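Section handout, structural biology tutorial.
Before the tutorial, make sure you can parse a SMILES string by hand: atoms, branches in parentheses, ring closures as digits. In the record below the ligand is glutathione, and the chain has 216 residues. In the tutorial you will relate the predicted C-alpha cells back to the input. Do not try to memorize them.
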Amino acid sequence: MQLFIGNKNYSSWSLRAWYLMSKFKVEFTEQQLVLDTPEFYSELQKHFTVAKVPALIDGDLQVWDSLAICEYINDAYLSNAAWPKAVALRAQARSVSAEMHSGFLALRNEMPMNIRATRNLELSDAAKKDIARIDEIFSVQQKFYPNGWLFGDFSIADAMFAPVVLRLKTYQISLSPLAQQYCDTVIACPVLQEWIKGSCKETDIVQADEAGINVI
Ligand SMILES: N[C@@H](CCC(=O)N[C@@H](CS)C(=O)NCC(=O)O)C(=O)O
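Predicted structure of the complex:
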C-alpha cells in the first residue's frame, strides 16, 4: 500500500491519513512529493484523476481525500477500531470530524500549517470564532476523557484535528486549560513527534503557507 503525502511541514491533509495509519501500525510505503512543484502534479497524475494529497493506492484501488482514506483504512484494515464502539459516541465523533472536514475555513486560510515556525498573527473575527468552537470541542471532550483522546481511545476524530493542534501551537493561540490539556496530549504522542521531526528536516518553503511574523 502506498500513501502519497506532501511536505510534512505544510500538508495538513496529508498528516491526517499518515497519522491514522501510523498510529494503528498499518503497513504502508510513504511516497513524499514536494507541494507546488511540476513533479508533484506529474507523479500524482500517473495514478490519480485528482492531483491532491493525501492519496492512497492499495492494489488496484485508488482512494483520495483524507477522510475517505481514514474511512477506508478503518473498514479494510481495522475492523472499525478507528471509530468509537458505541453508536452514539461514533455519531458524535463523526459529527466533529465532518465539521472539521467541511468547516473552519477562516482558520485554515489565515493559519496555514507550518510546523517548524513560531509566529505572531493578527486574526479576523471569523478565525477567532473558529478557534472558540475548536476550544469548545476540545474542552467538552476533555471533561469526559481527562488527559485522553477526544473520544477516549484514539480515533479518526483525533487524526482529523491533529493539524489544527499544530496550527494553534505555531501561532501561539491561548486556549482554555482543558483545551490546552488536549493539545498537550496530542503533541506528546510519539507517532506525531515522528511527523514533526520529519517536518523539521525539510527545507522547502511554500510561500503561500507562510503567514505571520516570526517570534524571535
Ligand atoms: N479535501 C482534500 C484536500 C486535499 C488537498 O487540498 N491537499 C493539498 C495539500 S495539503 C493539495 O494537494 N494541494 C495541491 C493543489 O491543490 O494543487 C483532503 O481532505 O484530502
